[in-house]
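The material for today's practical consists of a large collection of protein records. A record pairs a protein's sequence with a compact description of its fold. Instead of coordinates, the fold is spelled out as a row of discrete tokens. We will come back to this pairing of sequence and fold again and again. Here is such a record, shown just as it appears in the course material.
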Amino acid sequence: MWIDFTEGGRREIERHRMKALNDRPHVPLWPLWPGFAINTAFYAVLVWMLWLSPIVVRRVIRRKRGHCIKCGYDLRGAEHEACPECGAARDRISLITR
């Protein structure tokens, strides 16, 4: 590819470049709705997962340690059906593994 630095040559190159692009503008003037909807749904799920993941991880860790998944109260050795601290019902998994 060569570049002509004279003013007339530069105009000629620009004119051929625009013909190669079918004289379409470089800036989109309206959104492409299917792509816009797909991108919105994808990024909404991504943000939702990032927001929810610390809560899920915290609950998994508390369940493994034998604590209440809501408030973190130590339930090991307790015979209650609900957490004595916050009143949250114990799940079946923690009742089976005791």
